């Protein structure tokens, strides 16, 4: 069943209220009581805030949208095997190393897909207190301000954002992409990188990502006429990891061609 | 002749007033009338704002400190061959590609050295409107707020910032430094990178730089107990390019050892 624009606006407003509370709690915890641990390896950090935020968000989703399934990073979600119905994606702290060490360039991300179609996405830049949010039915906003479709610069005309680890270890042809771009930057987190592409600061971004890393960014980017795919130009699998590429039309073509060659 | 603390505070306040005007003019020009050209190659950008800012700053310095010499980027300075007396360093837009393309992560930088000794430095984060300023006689401030000496994390415990172009082309052992660090980031400009080291967000930063790129950062970093040298651990030549390294004591030792091996 398709949702009306009014229903979608109501969901958007509800999640914005959740994020308003989460922003304050996350800043306070960052300054006063951060406990840092590791997951798969010494560079894969997790904190008490990642876990607490995910538990809070997932509980809010479950009481708001009782039949929904949740795909989330820290283990408090479901593990759906299909994209039918309402599926929410939650990244409670995107860019945990930046959160812990740099105290900037991290985000909280939420997305809603219905029957595998992108409906709404939210990327909260926690330190600047700006939420990038919206979807195909309502457009994209930075807080209250509508974001216009970015320009269509080519790879050679713009800055590209890449995963530092993959570039360093020679993966996915990232060195060729970096050399062909006007310049490249390594931000170290998906949300802040998606924000820069959405706002036209960068012409593209690529990294290997899990669904909670790209779900919200994909909603916002596609709504603004950007291309989101895997690095070969194929549609993303919403339930597994992908080598994600988001870019302007021209930069997307440049990067996919470079990757094939 | 040594300057008193009061004289130094007066110079600091004077330059802060200059920067207050420059901040407004630079933001306005970025939004409304940016003309972009290139210098040595297609990635070496220069704008009308780089040139106008340098002419303004140099004129202010010349009327304020009549016997001083000026080392600046865009050709309106002197070309001193010695560091005796008052020498000012001016970078009218540090990170011009970021200024033009990303509209963030760029700076205006000014520094004063007297008889080759660091006296005062100013790094203006233009978009956030924060000036990092001070020197050994007065300490370091972010606007009015005093900055404390950052911690002494090692390379393996922290984020290191590197020049993207030099890393990409395998120069200066940057790949080994990146691999040994907890993580690395590429910001694309010296001022914003120095700010992250000074505030403890990163444990180190290295790039090949001209004097106007590192003069202000060196004053602030040394005042806060950080180590500034070339990548071999030697003192910087203030009148030529250097492979600059600024880092915590422990990360500095880690990086110099890696570079030698």
Automatic annotation (TrEMBL), chains A, B:
Gene3D superfamilies: 3.40.190.80, Fructose-1,6-Bisphosphatase, subunit A, domain 1 (3.30.540.10). GO terms for molecular function: inositol monophosphate 1-phosphatase activity; metal ion binding. SUPFAM superfamilies: Carbohydrate phosphatase (SSF56655). Keywords: Hydrolase, Magnesium, Metal-binding. Mg(2+) 1 binds at residues 73, 91, 94, 213. Mg(2+) 2 binds at residue 93. CDD domains: IMPase_like (cd01637). This is Inositol monophosphatase family protein.
């Amino acid at each position: 069943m398709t949702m009306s624009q009014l229903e979608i606006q109501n969901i958007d407003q509800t999640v914005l209220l959740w994020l308003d509370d989460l922003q304050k709690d996350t800043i306070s915890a960052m300054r006063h009581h951060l406990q840092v641990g590791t997951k798969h390896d010494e560079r894969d950090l997790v904190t008490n805030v990642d876990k607490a935020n995910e538990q809070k968000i997932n509980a809010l989703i479950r009481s708001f949208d009782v039949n929904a399934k949740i795909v989330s990073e820290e283990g408090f979600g479901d593990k759906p095997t299909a994209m039918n119905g309402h599926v929410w994606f939650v990244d409670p702290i995107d860019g945990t190393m930046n959160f812990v060490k740099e105290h900037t360039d991290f985000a909280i991300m939420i997305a809603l897909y219905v029957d595998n179609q992108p409906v709404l996405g939210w990327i909260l830049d926690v330190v600047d207190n700006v939420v990038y949010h919206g979807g195909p039915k309502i457009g994209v906003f930075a807080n209250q301000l509508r974001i216009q479709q970015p320009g269509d610069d080519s790879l050679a005309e713009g800055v590209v954002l890449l995963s530092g680890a993959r570039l360093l270890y020679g993966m996915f042809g990232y060195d060729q992409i970096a050399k062909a771009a006007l310049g490249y930057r390594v931000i170290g987190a998906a949300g802040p990188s998606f924000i820069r592409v959405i706002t036209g600061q960068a012409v593209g971004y690529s990294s290997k990502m899990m669904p909670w890393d790209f779900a919200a960014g994909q909603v916002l980017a596609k709504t603004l006429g950007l291309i989101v795919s895997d690095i070969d130009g194929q549609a993303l699998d919403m339930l597994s990891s992908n080598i994600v590429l988001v870019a302007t039309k021209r930069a997307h073509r440049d990067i996919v061609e470079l990757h094939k060659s």
